[in-house]
Amino acid sequence: MESLVVLNVSQLNTIPSPLFVPSVNVACTNIALMKPANQSTTVRGGAAANGNDGERTPVHDGKSCTETMKEASPWWMVDLLKPYPVRVVRVATRGCCGHQPLKDIEIRVGNSSSDLQRNPLCAWFPGTIEEGVTKTFTCARTLVGQHVFLQLVGVEGSLSVCEVEVFTTDEFSNDRCAPPGSSPDVELASFDRTCYELSIARGGSFLDARTHCQKHGGDLVHGLEGAATPFLLAQLERRKPTLKTQLVWIGATKEPGFTTRTWRWVNGEVVSRPSWGKEQPNNYNGEQNCVEVVLRISHSLLMSFDRIKPKSGEWAVMIDFLQGAAVTFLSNGINVKSPSDCGSPDKLLNTTISGSNYSVEAVISYQCPLGHRLVGERNRSCTVNGFWSGQAPGCQYVDCGSLPKLDHGVVMLEDNRTTHGAWARYSCHENYTLTGREKRQCGDDGKWSDEPPQCLCESHC
Ligand SMILES: [Ca+2]
């Protein structure tokens, strides 16, 4: 499964985009992969989750693509779990026959999960999209949002797609997360610029789990907060059929001692508000060394217990994913491969970039055509994370207009222009002296600098 995609957007572009015209290859990561998905209705095995399971096959076969019932303006949605700058969405359509092709599709990116029409429009496609193809849509401008919607607008029909990929330059690609010499059964996922390893095919004690994670340069998953928890849960949910076991160690233990109630993450920080499962922790008959936590966002997390006798007297925490017996585990903070460079930087219409060194710590600068002002930061640097700092600046055309004539003198335009950065030079006729500034420049605000000078009489005027 590819995790890093190099898109030459100018080749793939299907929708005219007035602002974003990338002329370079931009390394993008698919951030829709296995995130929570939803749709207006579901029929014939066409679950919303089929739309971002990483399989692009155009043959539905009752399980591979999404499908809604025939209805007015059907939609499909993915929750990216945090807002991302989104620019490219790629849709694999369903193959020939047996289902109506997509027609009049709209793609929206925004932060409203309930009122999809409130989200800004990324792209639309009037007419019918070919069957069994992968079509790339480029947002007219970069949109920052947590939810990406596809909708057949004003159409009475059934929405069926086989894979939707949402690309950003703002997230690690999984291949940056791979520990050296990792085996093929290691599943990687990245979120919020943190790499996670899902050791779904393994089992063992808390200590086994922790040792394994540390060998891979990380530790058992810890410090869970914010959207990282629903992210990991969604990852596990999607892998349910392949999980060796149904209980998952996470990196928290109770401090030793009978009276203490303090739980700590493996990095030493206190677990501030553990959300224990029902009747947990209980250390039933002194036979348990684990306690289940309930992740509040899912109805599928219920209590259960394992049968491992405590060895150390410490308790560890597991996500009780489903009822089960043995233990698998998650790891985070694994060694992220240090990137050697940031790849080609993105740029907006009209801008040019000087500097061709894209390695870490290199600085590039953006230029605008003559007569335009630069909007944003001129310079960007390649950070150690492998991302360019800040945002690509834009260019705005500025014209300060012609200047009034000067009494007893002349005003000359250098380069014969009145646009941004242009200079006007004043001079006086014979016997007159110039008072004030000799030169004025067209500035960012569309106005000439300073006040106009005057030509004052010396004598014999
Ligand atoms: Ca699929």
TrEMBL record:
InterPro entries attached to this UniProt entry: BG_Antigen-Binding_Lectin, C-type_lectin-like, C-type_lectin-like/link_sf, CTDL_fold, FTP1, Galactose-bd-like_sf, Sushi/SCR/CCP_sf, Sushi_SCR_CCP_dom
A Pfam family it matches: Lectin_C
Basic and acidic residues: bias regions: 53-65
Domain Sushi residue range list: 340-397, 398-457
Name the record gives this protein: C-type lectin
Disulfide bonds: C368-C395, C428-C455
Keywords tagged on the record: Calcium, Disulfide bond, Lectin, Metal-binding, Signal, Sushi
Gene source species: Timema podura
Domain C-type lectin per the UniProt entry, residue ranges: 191-315
